[in-house]
Amino acid sequence: MGSEAEIARKPRFLCLHGFRTSGAILKKQIETKWPQSVLEKIDLVYPDAPFPAQGKSDVEGIFDPPYYEWFQFNKEFTSYTNFEECLAYIEDIMIRQGPFDGLLGFSQGAILSCGLPGLQAKGVALTKVPKIKYLIIIGGAKFKSESVAEKAYSSPIQCSSLHFLGETDFLKPYGLELLESCVDPVVIHHPKGHTIPRFDEKGLESVMSFLERIQRMLPEKQEKEIYSTATEDALEA
Hints:
This is Folic acid and derivative biosynthetic process. By secondary structure, this protein is α/β, with parallel strands linked by helices.
């Protein structure tokens, strides 16, 4: 019975929201647009970013505050503030609420999500939690800070990844560039802009196929037990 339950469990994703929005907003965006057939196949956790918004949010008047941001940056997006604190905050969530199989990210959360596996592989982030295995990237791009990017993309991103690219999304050229660093990514194009997309029939088919494939690849119970021991050690440290 135990092994059957383990095989049947859903892949668990930590969901990182966009700049100056919130976990509640991302949850609402996803759960009002994605069909139940998709939502019932995944376990999604929606934390808020660590820092209250330090300026106006693009979703004011559409979604209620409070709004949060993962880290701050300069006008050229090449220099970051509070980035180390952001990484430590995400790791703490993964320790306390994990284990997680993968990351789902939108916008600033997508940039983080696709950069974290490389930082983890280099031993500069998420060193106390299991390896990130799966990614769902919506409106993503690469880090522009050279010091971060050289660690994040020094090797191809080995995670199984699903990417959504909007035809009118201002980040689309950067999302295409990101694909070049991913090993065998699944790509879904949609006609909208920088937003959480709905699925057409072909898109839904691709999403379901991706989720069914990664469920078959889920780690066994033993890794969960190893994680529990590592977590206890981390919390006692």
